[in-house]
Amino acid sequence: MPIGAAAPSGWHPHLWHPTTQVATATPPEQVVRGEGAELITADGRRLIDAIGSWWVTLHGHGEPSIAAAIADQARRLEQVIFADFSHPPAEQLATRLSRLSGLERLFFSDNGSTAVEVALKVAWQWWRNRGSERRQLVAFAGAYHGDTFGAMAVGERSLFSDAFEPLLFEVARVPWPATHWQDERVEEREAEALAVLERLLETPTAAVILEPLVQGASGMRMVRESFLRQVERRVRQAGALLIADEVLTGFGRTGELFACRRAGIQPDLMALSKGLTGGFLPMGVTLAREALFQGFVDPDPTRTLYHGHSFTANPLGCAAALASLDLLEGFPERHRGMEARHRPHLERLAGHPGVRQPRLLGGIAAFDLVVESPGYLNPAGKRLQALVRHEGVFLRPLGQVIYLLPPLCIDDNQLERCYRAIGLALDALGEAP
Ligand SMILES: Cc1ncc(COP(=O)(O)O)c(C=O)c1O
Question: Where do the domains of the chain lie, and which CATH numbers do they carry?
Fold first, then answer.
């Protein structure tokens, strides 16, 4: 049989797409350009990218200043081994992110999952280097931290990790008191979660990892800022480390540069990726407190952090990240203003009988469709996705959870079109037999 002969029609014979079941999915459409908030397909159709292409496209597709910074850097130094060398864009980025995050040390990797892996390794080995092995890791129910093994292990067990269950290490789990507009029972759920956390922290704990303010992949599940402050207090009392996975929430997505800043907490370790390069290039970073770094400084070679990737601190990624930070710091009103721009639209939708649990934080607006059996495989979101696509809007619901997370450059007219398309789709779904 020739290679690729078994590819169903519409699918490329040599590609394997992520999290995609070819037997049932619609074949992907070809995109040939990106312009601001829009994607342009091979047949010339324009689609508003209302989820920033898996939450990475921060300012907009093709943002000229980032494209220029990458091109300029490519002409000077495109890549160099980062074990024996350093270079100016890496140093500038480290200095800048340290100042912005309050965490003095920066370790480079390639994506969100690896940024989490590094945070876990640093936390684990730091205790070991001190001679006091703390063996418990605590994470939250519904967490998603990536698809590599360590990241999967701290994530909630799910459809994504089921096949690998026997290979994942044990993690203690705390309920996540997700909330939404007009939630009357949030305090009760928060108290329950804090009680579980307190009980678990009686066991010596290396680290507690969380997605600050919003759990993304499990359905844009938002918690109150005060809850995170309570969590931080208990983690400090127990002497454990706090890891903030800001892969989704970093770089203005919650209205502040970092969700931790919005919540008023200071983690010991922070994982960043996605918006780091404005969404132009794959890169991850793990920021750490100086005291953690110092815990690895020792003539004994076994105290070294033996972790590194071929493309560590890729100069093109660093240049993109610096240009992206110029925009974020130069025009903070753009990310700070997103919440107010979403609000009237979401308020209008919230009255629709097909909508439940509306919620909003910074540039992330979400709600659930009314369905009988919620979950990632629930088809209701897919039906809505197909309907809004006809209206020129690209969404990728998480089961029955519909959310918008558009690039910051989206204009009022485009945002209005997104919500109008959703409203029409909700009406159509409501009428379906
Ligand atoms: C909170 C969080 N952490 C980690 C990851 C993994 O990032 P990546 O897909 O770049 O490996 C994601 C991806 O969606 C995420 O949302």
Answer: 32-60+337-431 (3.90.1150.10), 65-330 (3.40.640.10)
CA 230 to chain centre: 23
Q: Which atom of ligand 1 is nearest to the CA of 112?
A: 7
In whole angstroms, give the CA distance from residue 318 to residue 324. Answer: 10
Whole-number Å distance between alpha carbons of 378 and 380: 6
Name the residue with the closest Cα to ligand 1, atom 10. 112
Q: Read off the pLDDT of each residue in 50-62 and give the average, rounded to a whole number.
A: 98
**Amino acid identity, position 48:** I
- 142 C-alpha to ligand 1 centroid (Å): 13
Beta carbons of 364 and 254 less than 8 angstroms apart: yes
pLDDT tens digits along 193-247: 999 999 999 999 999 999 999 999 999 999 999 999 999 999 999 999 999 999 9
Out of 51, 56, 273, 398, mutate this one to test ligand 1's pocket (max ligand atoms within 8 Å of CB): namely 273
Among 257, 301, 351, 315, smallest CA distance to 91 is for 315
Neighbouring-strand partners of residue 35: 38
Q: Are 346 and 420 in contact (CB under 8 A)?
A: no
Return d(Cα 292, Cα 175) in angstroms, integer.
Answer: 28
**388 contact partners, CB below 8 Å, separation of at least 6:** 394, 395, 418, 421, 422, 424, 425
Q: What is the pLDDT of residues 126-145, one digit of tens each?
A: 999 999 889 999 999 999 99
Model pTM above 0.85? yes
Tell me, using a 6 A CB cutoff, whether residue 146 lines ligand 1.
Answer: yes
DSSP states of 122-146: HHHHHHHHTT----EEEEETT----
Which amino acid belongs to residue 39?
L
Any atom of ligand 1 within 6 Å of the Cβ of 273: yes
149 Cα–ligand 1 center, Å: 13
Give the closest residue (by CA) to ligand 1 atom 7: 112
Give 378-390 pLDDT, tens digit per residue. 999 999 999 999 9
The average pLDDT across 152-174 equals 97
Q: How far is the CA of 112 from the centre of ligand 1 (A)?
A: 4
Atom of ligand 1 nearest to the CA of 274: 10
Judge if the beta carbon of residue 115 lies within 6 A of ligand 1: no
Ligand 1 center–CA 159 separation, angstroms: 16
